[in-house]
Amino acid sequence: DVHDQNDDVGSEGGEHLPLPPVSYKTLFQFATTRDMANLLLGVIFEACAGAGFPVMIAIFGESIDQLSTACASQETDPLNQLIQFIILGGVMFVLRFASTLCLSLQQKNQIAAYRAAYMKAIVRQDIGWFDVNNPQELSTAFGDALTYIEKGLGFSAWGMLAQNAGTAIAATVIAFMYQPAVAAVSCAFLPVQIYAMMIFMATQASGIKD
């Protein structure tokens, strides 16, 4: 339903209050099976693309090691390393393109469904409803709301989350493959680092509010 736009929703005494959180079920209420499939594929593709960054760093480290030993042995194969970089870069490009395409498709489809539902809700209102609601302000209010919805459905939310998750998982696996002892110590202190980061973010947020 279309709510009264003249009410100070999200404001009190002229001060703008933060918007209330919504559930994932509410956010994806207009999602079809195809949209959810595109979202899942986009997340998987972006996670695989994010995993390519630690792999690239590992290949670069091996290249540096080979160059350092080549001065003594005069034996190196730079062409092999170059081919690996080209293949990895091409795979990451294809994965990133596929991820952006899938996430954009599901986002645009759901935004179109939101717009259609909003128009239907306005059209079915009684004549008296337009006497207490300014029709010229409805499009502006709905446009502001769509901005938040697009952020929740788009690449900035799901793509970045999948990319960071893929990078973290791949980096952890590679770390245990090369230096398991150092990786184990780093993982042991990981909760302390996360807790310190949470304290820092909470302190920074409280400082901004003040």
TrEMBL record:
Enumerate the spans annotated as ABC transmembrane type-1 domain.
40-210
Q: Name one GO cellular component term.
A: plasma membrane
State its location(s).
Membrane
**SUPFAM superfamilies per record:** ABC transporter transmembrane region
Question: What's the domain of life for this entry?
Answer: Eukaryota
**How does this protein sit in the membrane?**
Multi-pass membrane protein
Coiled-coil residue windows: none
| InterPro entries recorded | ABC1_TM_dom, ABC1_TM_sf, Type_1_exporter
User: Which stretches are transmembrane?
Assistant: 39-61, 81-105, 155-176, 182-202
Under the GO molecular function aspect, what terms does this record hold? ABC-type transporter activity; ATP binding
Q: Name one Pfam family in it.
A: ABC_membrane
Main subcellular location of this protein, as a coarse class: membrane
Keywords for the protein's UniProt record, in alphabetical order: Membrane, Transmembrane, Transmembrane helix
| UniProt-listed PANTHER family | ABC TRANSPORTER B FAMILY, MYCOBACTIN IMPORT ATP-BINDING_PERMEASE PROTEIN IRTB
- State what protein this is by name: ABC transmembrane type-1 domain-containing protein
Organism source for this protein? Calcidiscus leptoporus
